[in-house]
User: Which sequence fits this backbone?
């Protein structure tokens, strides 16, 4: 469980970290052009006022909806505001001494805690770069044409209620009239960067006190599986709001590193929802139970867009294929899995409760149950029932996360993924917050998702493309030297939020 750290020690460590680190872009790429050139050389940046939100009221509304009806564990994070902003009618161009050009526009949503941008058109020419700059000179980028998915692009989150879009074109480069259009702004109300909180409340620790960091002793037998888990934001088709869920990168039987990412159908169930995904890797603490984050950027390792491959409501699964392979420096892992339906001797789960740093749960041998969140019609035996947990719990944002057999499970099934989180009533105990309560969760069974009426409703066509009859696959390191090499070459996790003032 969490180690005890005094407020004084936490504050001292926080101040030391903040003093040691200059503001940096999450992608840690070349800074925006405007950062290193005098403002007098640039045209004034026009501001587009995109309405206002009441962040506190939005949080209350989202949490009230989450507590009523089906207890799924998505986390609503932002309101989506439609816009139509392009380089012909908005912003300002600056002609630069080297012959290149810079276009800038500032987006303002009064009251938002953080912002993310969606571009319906994103066909940048060669040599063009895009940065999105938030509060405190925090930037995302540079992004290029290679980051587009289906001619569109969804940016990563930046802090604050203002975001400056900066597009740089090299000398002699032209932008087609319909190549670039900002079509929506995600106005956040969860304060994912914790900028509005006291130092004691920043970073790790924003989820319930009974949650367990993956770096704690409970996570030590699972270094590879931890690297397979990530969280993502996406735009929901029905209410057009933005949500946060968790998921797991999966190996397939031939070990060819196709970027299959497994989550829940109540998170992702359409091609447009999959295309809107922005996935964040390696957001985890490096010291067990310490509530002050280590050095590094907030969300360094991000990728954009995915194609929906298969989904079905009764087993509550969604398999997508990420648009790009994760960067080798992110050191991800393709998790192994078991679709036999055989119950392990115990389970662990890996997830991002409340969008917090990566956490781990521990539970007993699971039982079999029906779909606990009521989306599966009359189907039976589609889910694992887990809990009560002996350590950790799940919260909003944990939906879609992986359930794994423990390291002590026999039969060659140790550490293999067997399900994805649908929901449930597990939480930290209200009377003893450092301990989990006595409730349970349910996870869609991989065994139930394995077969279906077509490739679009089952996993086996994608995870066993040669139809070998395999019901399981071992994991493989993302940086393995050859296919089939499951040996772990991982680095120690080093990327977590640093508060920027």
Assistant:
């Amino acid at each position: 469980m969490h180690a005890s750290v005094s407020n004084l020690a936490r504050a001292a460590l926080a101040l030391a970290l903040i003093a040691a680190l200059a503001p940096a872009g999450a992608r840690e790429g070349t800074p925006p052009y405007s950062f290193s050139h005098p403002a007098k050389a640039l045209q004034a940046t026009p501001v587009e006022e995109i309405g206002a939100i009441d962040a506190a009221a939005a949080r209350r509304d989202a949490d009230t909806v989450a507590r009523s009806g089906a207890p799924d564990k998505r986390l609503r994070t932002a309101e989506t505001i439609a816009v139509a902003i392009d380089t012909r009618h908005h912003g300002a161009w600056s002609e630069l001494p080297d012959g290149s050009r810079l276009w800038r526009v500032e987006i303002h949503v009064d009251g938002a805690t953080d912002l993310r941008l969606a571009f319906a058109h994103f066909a940048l020419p060669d040599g063009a770069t895009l940065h999105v700059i938030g509060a405190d000179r925090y930037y995302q980028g540079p992004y290029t044409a290679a980051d587009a998915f289906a001619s569109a692009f969804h940016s990563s989150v930046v802090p604050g209620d203002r975001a400056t879009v900066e597009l740089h074109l090299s000398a002699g480069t032209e932008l087609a009239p319909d190549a670039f259009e900002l079509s929506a702004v995600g106005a956040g109300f969860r304060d994912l960067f914790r900028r509005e909180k006291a130092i004691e409340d920043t970073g790790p620790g924003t989820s319930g006190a009974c949650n367990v960091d993956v770096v704690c002793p409970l996570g030590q037998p699972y270094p590879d599986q931890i690297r397979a888990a990530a969280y993502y934001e996406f735009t929901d088709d029905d209410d057009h709001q933005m949500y946060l869920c968790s998921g797991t990168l999966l190996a397939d039987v031939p070990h060819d590193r196709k970027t299959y990412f497994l989550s829940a159908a109540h998170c992702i169930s359409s091609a447009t929802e999959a295309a809107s995904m922005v996935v964040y890797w390696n957001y985890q603490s490096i010291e067990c139970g310490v509530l002050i984050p280590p050095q590094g950027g907030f969300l360094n390792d991000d990728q954009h867009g995915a194609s929906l491959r298969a989904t079905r409501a009764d087993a509550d699964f969604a398999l997508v294929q990420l648009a790009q392979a994760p960067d080798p420096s992110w050191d991800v892992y393709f998790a192994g899995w078991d679709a036999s339906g055989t119950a392990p001797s115990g389970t662990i789960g890996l997830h991002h409760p409340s969008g917090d740093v990566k956490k781990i749960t521990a539970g007993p041998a699971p039982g079999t149950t029906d779909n606990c969140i009521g989306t599966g019609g009359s189907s039976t035996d589609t889910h694992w029932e887990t809990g009560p947990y002996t350590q950790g719990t799940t919260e909003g944002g944990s939906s879609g996360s992986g359930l794994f057999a423990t390291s002590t499970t026999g039969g060659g099934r140790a550490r293999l993924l067997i399900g994805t989180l649908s929901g449930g009533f597990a939480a930290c105990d209200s009377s003893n917050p450092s301990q989990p309560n006595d409730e349970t969760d349910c996870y869609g069974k991989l065994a139930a998702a394995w077969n279906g009426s077509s490739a679009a409703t089952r996993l086996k066509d994608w995870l066993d493309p040669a139809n070998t009859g395999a019901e399981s696959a071992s994991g493989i390191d993302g940086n393995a030297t050859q296919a089939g090499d499951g040996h772990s070459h991982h680095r120690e996790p080093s990327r977590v939020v640093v508060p920027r003032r």
Notes: The two ends are 30 Å apart (CA to CA).
